[in-house]
Design a protein that fits this description.
Blueprint lengths: L5 H8 L17 H8 L7 E3 L8 H18 L5 E3 L10 H8 L6 E3 L9 H4 L8 E4 L27 H10 L5 E5 L7 H10 L4 E6 L8 H16 L1 H4 L2 E6 L8 H10 L5 E4 L11 E5 L5 E5 L8 E5 L5 E5 L6 E5 L5 E5 L6 E4 L6 E5 L6 H10 L5 E6 L4 E4 L8 E6 L7 E5 L5 E6 L20 E6 L2 E8 L3 E17 L11 E16 L2 E18 L2 E2 L7 E15 L8 E5 L2 E8 L6 E4 L9 E5 L6 E4 L4 E2 L5 E3 L19 E2 L5 H4 L1
């Protein structure tokens, strides 16, 4: 690092967030870092807050302290501040005071509507400010959202008054971007139009039509008329770049949407929610726009809409939800990168002309045939992330079908219907298969998974797997084959008393970093790798059979082996055949009888602890010879035979044969 020039060091530090990563603390590393951090304006130019970070009180307090320090010491560098309406970062009065002192700020994308209007007069950056946000903060803890674009209601309803508009005209001569909440307009539309005619805006972002039950009737009338007036004005419609209608206006039909898109030639982001069912009876909706980058439709014409066609050549992100009668979707955009389809109960036909699609998400689309999905994947081989949530009977993917697939997420609501999952994609890195229940269920109400159910098998083959997580109660076979496996987690039940299918478990890899199985019942357990980092078994058992089932682990080296609470492990022998094992731990495996280790273990004796294994009789080599356990931590194992042999050298684990002398054992 000392050999790097200051410019390159500054580019590396630019990857740290000024607040979330507390960039100011890095100035304590050394004097050179302090000089670079304190004298590089680009590190503090933009501070953005997103909803993706933790919402706990402790995190908020730490972030606000870091932000307070940033604004106090580096505020003269800050030119852009953006805050998400959920995070409520700038509700702290001390932060508001520091915010008013910033002199270089050109973008203030912080909801200001709930503050005192006189705060706008205290902003020292008013002469250079170019972007202003006149919307409100939302509740920190939103309720369960049934509709895709329905936002939580505001904490307190505040309204835009003519006083706000007059102050904006007088105090912000350089204003070019303005965000307005249509639900907060407390004056006739003519006043708003006169204001928009006086300011020289280049971008206007409108939002509103939220589900606010106490909204006065005159406010509802004002917002409807404002939207009508703006969308029908050729001059004003050309400056609207974002339109977010959380519920659909009463007057709105597909014809209104088509005309509005024709006039709004610079519209980049459009979200329309909660259904145009009032007067719209058309079965085909065609959306055409040359400027749209993001399109979201929620519950659009849920009464009769059957086919949706989007001719949007610049579209990059598309979201569609709650169109229950929709059967076909055609998206014509070569730039489309992300597509999300949710709650389309009759949907079965999907086509797109995209050559850049990398994310596809299907949620609750039970009528969509698996062949339609396979054909879609064959036509879009650029997909890197695939998510399927809902019902699934089976899935088979090959490398020729998904040559760039990196992430596969399967979240199922009907696990008993699942047949088999076969994934043979060399590029796959992350795989998730889990089961969820519809609606909240308490521990007392949950009675386990059904006894009568089908069985399923999972086969995964890839080159390098970063993370594999499987939670299926009816899985009978899981096979994973790869060159490198970082993390594997398998769970087969919610509670230890759940009925579980006997699992044939096999993992063959070059190296395994971590593998954990929880609440599983095995008919076979087989691991094979050159090196294994950690193996963990918790609440696991073996299927009862006439032959003695075994846990087979074959590796040249194992760092750690842990068996915890496997008290249902009946008549099992654990066969471990590594050349080196560093640590072995057995805890509360009450029915475990014998543990077999390879002869090579004597070369590098492991740290071993055996706790509360009540029926453990011996720890043996594969040849049947015992191991000296005099230096092993043993507690609560009354039947364990512990031979005490004379120690020669530093070896803690030694061989004992029935007809061998001490030198042979050594």
């Amino acid at each position: 690092m000392d050999a790097l020039p200051n410019e390159l060091l500054a580019q590396i530090l630019a990857f740290f967030h000024p607040v979330y990563d507390n960039l100011a603390r890095l100035s304590m590393v050394c004097k050179r870092w302090k000089d670079v951090i304190e004298n590089t304006p680009s590190l503090w130019k933009c501070i953005h807050f997103t909803r993706a970070y933790p919402l706990c009180v402790t995190e908020y307090a730490r972030h606000r302290d870091a932000l307070r320090h940033c604004l106090f010491k580096f505020g003269h560098y800050v030119t852009c501040l953006r805050d998400h309406p959920i995070t409520r970062t700038f509700t702290d009065p001390s932060l508001r005071e520091l915010l008013s002192r910033l002199t270089s700020l050109t973008c203030l994308d912080v909801p200001l509507l709930e503050w005192d209007p006189r705060f706008l007069q205290t902003l020292q950056c008013a002469s250079v400010l170019e972007e202003l946000n006149l919307t409100e903060y939302l509740r920190s803890e939103p309720p369960e959202i049934q509709w895709l674009f329905q936002q939580p209601e505001t904490l307190e309803k505040n309204f835009i008054t003519p006083q706000h508009l007059q102050m904006v005209i007088l105090r912000f001569p350089q204003l070019k971007v303005l965000k307005l909440a249509l639900d907060s307009i407390a004056f006739p539309p003519s006043t708003l139009i006169a204001f928009l005619d006086k300011v020289n805006l280049t971008k206007l972002e409108l939002s509103g039509f939220g589900l606010v039950p106490t909204l006065p009737p005159h406010i509802i009338h004002n917002r409807d008329m404002c939207l009508k007036t703006i969308s029908s004005s050729q001059r004003l419609a050309t400056v609207v770049t974002r339109l977010e209608l959380r519920t659909c206006p009463l007057f709105f039909t597909s014809d209104h949407l088509r005309i509005m898109l024709k006039l709004m030639k610079t519209l980049r982001h459009l979200f329309v929610g909660a259904g145009m069912v009032h007067r719209d009876r058309k079965s085909l909706l065609s959306i055409e726009s040359a400027s749209l980058l993001t399109l979201g439709l929620d519950g659009l014409s849920t009464l009769r809409m059957q086919c949706l066609r989007c001719n949007t050549p610049a579209l990059k992100e598309f979201q569609l939800a709650n169109c229950f009668d929709l059967t076909a979707l055609f998206v014509y955009s070569k730039s489309l990168e992300s597509m999300c389809l949710r709650n389309l109960s009759n949907f079965h036909n999907l086509k797109s002309s995209s050559t850049r699609l990398n994310h596809l998400e299907l949620v609750a689309c039970p009528a969509m045939p698996i062949t339609t999905l396979r054909n879609f994947l064959k036509g879009h081989q650029t997909i890197k992330k695939l998510s399927i949530i809902g019902e699934l009977t089976g899935l088979t993917l090959y490398g020729a079908m998904c040559p760039q697939l990196r992430v596969l997420n399967l979240l199922l609501c009907q696990a008993p219907r699942l047949g088999s999952i076969k994934i043979d994609c060399p590029t796959l890195e992350n795989f998730l298969c889990d089961v969820y229940r519809r609606g909240p269920v308490t521990a007392d109400e949950f009675c386990g998974f059904p006894q009568d159910r089908s069985t399923c098998a999972i086969f995964i083959r890839s080159r390098k797997l970063e993370r594999v997580s499987i939670n299926l109660p009816n899985a009978t076979a899981i096979a994973v084959k790869c060159e490198e496996l970082k993390h594997l987690s398998v769970t087969m039940g919610e509670t230890p008393n759940d009925s579980k299918a006997a699992l044939d478990f096999e993992v063959i890899a070059g190296t395994i970093s971590f593998i954990r199985t929880t609440n599983c019942k095995f008919s076979r357990y087989h691991l094979q790798a050159r090196r294994i980092g950690k193996i963990g078994l918790q609440l696991c058992e073996m299927e009862s059979d006439e032959s003695i089932p075994r846990l087979d682990v074959e590796a040249k080296a194992i760092d750690k082996l842990v068996l915890d609470n496997c008290h249902h492990l009946q008549c099992a022998e654990l066969r471990v055949k590594p050349d080196r094992i560093a640590h072995v731990s057995f805890s509360e495996c009450n029915n475990l009888r014998n543990i077999f280790l390879s002869r090579a273990v004597v070369k590098n004796p492991p740290e071993m602890s055996v706790i509360k294994c009540k029926h453990l009789e011996s720890i043996l080599l594969s040849s049947g010879r015992q191991i000296d356990l005099s230096n092993v931590n043993v507690a609560g194992c009354p039947y364990l035979n512990i031979p005490k042999l004379p120690q020669n050298g530093n070896s803690n684990i030694r061989f004992v044969g029935a007809d061998e002398n001490t030198s042979e054992a050594q």
